[in-house]
Amino acid sequence: MNLTNLEKVLKNEPKYRIKQINEAIYRKFISSWDEATILSKELRETLKKECPIDITADVLVSKEKDSIKAKIKLKDGLEIETVMMRHIDGRNTVCVSSQVGCPLKCKFCATGMMGFKRDLTHEEIIEQVVFFERYLKGERVTNVTFMGMGEPFLNYDNVMKAIRFLNKELNIGARSMSVSTAGIVEGINKFADEGLQVNLAISLHAPNDKLRSELIPIDKKYPLKKLLKAVDEYILKTNRQVMFEYLLIKDINDSDKHAEELAKLIKKPLYFLNLIMYNPTGVFEPSKRSREFKDKLNKLKVNFSERHRFGEDIKAACGQFYIK
Ligand code: SAH
What's the confidence (pLDDT) of residue 251? Predict the structure, then answer.
């Protein structure tokens, strides 16, 4: 979509026109101006030329049909990936990208390997959700997670703009949205003051700085002590639960000793752990002792959940977003 000329096109139109147009794009999810029959034919023709609303994307559907990946082409020719997961309970979660590529270079993540191209605008973030709203033809996107390409807290303002817009115009509940960060402390601090009910997730993946900084280079700038202090302050301010994501990687972070260290870090009120199986990106292997690791956590009385894996066959699972 390219709505940058919209204001210019509407300058001689009554004020309510923009409301009608927003309604058509973000509530009725029209994919062509012809469907906006509330507008005059003449205006529709101008809009077609000046404000194209088609979204160009290649779509891949997984074998189980429960995850759909769209590779969306942006105005400048760059591409991003976005995925929709269809849960059996009826939820439809869209996992959006916040940047083209990513500057953080986490060892286990495919996006890091492609380098960083640029930030997405808030419109480009919203467009990813609009794409799937159109795809669903009437059924709705219920959840949005900022867990696609990029580090959302390094594109903070556009991510917040997109969140507020999705909440207000597309009616997606704040509590049904989540932002995941590799641990950008300034972002966590600001997020605590937004007054939003949006969920916060932290990519932890290692229980000590020695290992974590090897896997997630930004840990050197924001070591665990600083990071967890910011999380504690966030919890104090918002009284909201924080999810810690922990990948299980073979022989890297999956020993009983790691589980013990992890338990020490994570057994705090409103902290909760989400275990993720490592999805192959050509560097490490998935852990073979996830059962033992979970047993150990249970013995240590750590609460945790496990992330369901979606879309591995179409490279649509966590950490597999990559554009050549
Ligand atoms: N930059 C943000 C958001 C994008 S990553 C962040 O780091 O949180 C979304 C989630 O997928 C993160 O928890 C990330 O660590 C995880 N992830 C990355 N590579 C993965 C892989 N190969 N297998 C499984 N999860 C992965």
Answer: 97
